[in-house]
Amino acid sequence: MSSRIRRALFGITAAVIAFLGLGQPASAHGFSSVVYVHVTNGDSGRIRTVLELEYDLYVVSAADAEHDDPLFRAGTAAFEAGDTEGQAAALDSHAESAVRYVTERFSVGTGGKACTPSRAGDFTIGRREGVPYAALPLEWSCPGQGGDPEVRSTLFPDSEGYVRGTRTIATYDLAGLSGSAALDADHPSFSIGQSWYERFWEFFRLGAEHLLTGVDHVLFLLALIAGSRRLREIVLAATSFTLAHSVTFLLAALGLVHVPERIVEPVIALSIAVVAGWHLWRLPRRGDRAAALSGPVVEGPLGLDRAGWLRLGVVFCFGLVHGLGFAGALGIDEPWSWTLLWSLLVFNVGIEAVQLGIIAIVFPLLALLYRRAPRAGLWATGALCAGVAGMGLVWFVQRVLEG
User: Fold this and answer.
1) β pairing state of 189-191 and 131-141
2) Residue 109: how many CB atoms within 10 A of its CB?
3) What pLDDT is recorded for position 96?
4) Sign of the dihedral through C-alpha 152, 187, 211, 335
5) CB 385 within 8 A of CB 226
6) Three-class SS of residue 260?
7) Which residues have CB under 8 Å from 46's CB, separation 6+?
8) Residue 301, class by beta-carbon neighbours within 10 Å (0-12 exposed, 13-18 middle, 19+ buried)?
9) In principle, which of 111, 154, 214, 372 could form an S-S bond with 145, CB 3.0–4.6 Å?
């Protein structure tokens, strides 16, 4: 292969890696936050909501929006000291600013008219994913006219500059209806009376968007594709990954398994480097055979040799860890219900749909390149895996240091 073609291939691969990875934070998902909302029947016909908001983000955002420097100083000092009582006291003593920040960005309405909020208790502090969350109870007096209640949330918008891609996970048990909904900047509201397919579409979309925006998961998948010379290999690898992450995703999202994020995120980064490095390590051992897409016929179960089965086992184990990452991104931690289970399954289907789409696009292109120019295909996959392995190692070190 000429040096000109080789340089072009490296340039294209580097551009892809740069587009996917450079400038991304160590989490590879961006600095995002999840708001939790529980909607139930309140007293005297009112609607009750309990919002749970990430404490330090809440303090900084509310203090900035309301120009309340004392709230920032008191809240930050309590946060840095790990003083739970002090954190609640800081919000209670500046309740006007803290509550106004929420009610200007979160609302409940019925029949097209806004309900009037009132504080229904003191702030309390709990923990989610290892960080403090502030719980704010509110009750909403709504107009007498009927209509399905509608919830709208634009809390912690990107424009504030502190986080990006805030999601609001809402659960409700109201007026004989129960379920869950996922809100974000593009879809900031939902109706309690929404149809089942509207609710499921929200979770399907959320799953699809999470994989597309989760650069580390995309790089892991690209490494799997680049290291597979047969369609059978990538199908088996993708199936193994899917089965593994589906199990841990459901167990973690239903609250049956919990692994700290400081462990999960570095291992996900390491998995990217290992899977990509596996292909690089095998290239010299395969020699000229590496440039052939089909490769030699292997006598063994499912057409895999010992190395193929070992790779499949490694992919399965890393898939278990990626499932914990998917569950942490969704952030649901609610009691068991069939509605919740179906929502989780649909979220997972959204992930799989995008994963299959990436395979359907990338693998045929590599197959065509291998057939037309085997050596060019070899250099392309090698350069791709080298870049992916490098990004994985960088993220691993960053996440370990941040943990």
Assistant:
1) unpaired
2) 20
3) 96
4) positive
5) yes
6) coil
7) 139, 140, 141, 142
8) exposed
9) 111
Average pLDDT value for residue range 188-211: 79
Query: b vs e for 25-62, b when ≥16 Cβ sit within 10 Å of the residue's Cβ?
Result: ebbbbeebbbbbbbbeebeeebbbbbbbbbbbbbbbbb
* Choice between 316 and 18, residue whose per-residue pLDDT is larger: 316
Residues in the chain: 403
Longest dimension (CA), the chain: 80
DSSP state of 395: H
Query: How far is the C-alpha of 264 from the C-alpha of 27, rounded, in Å?
Result: 11
pTM over 0.70: no
Query: Which string of DSSP letters, residue by residue, matches 116-158?
Result: EEEE-S--EEEEETTEEEEEEEEEEE--SS----EEEE--S-G
Residues 6+ apart with CB under 8 A from 30: 24, 163, 164, 165, 213
Q: Report strand pairing: 34-41 vs 47-54.
A: antiparallel
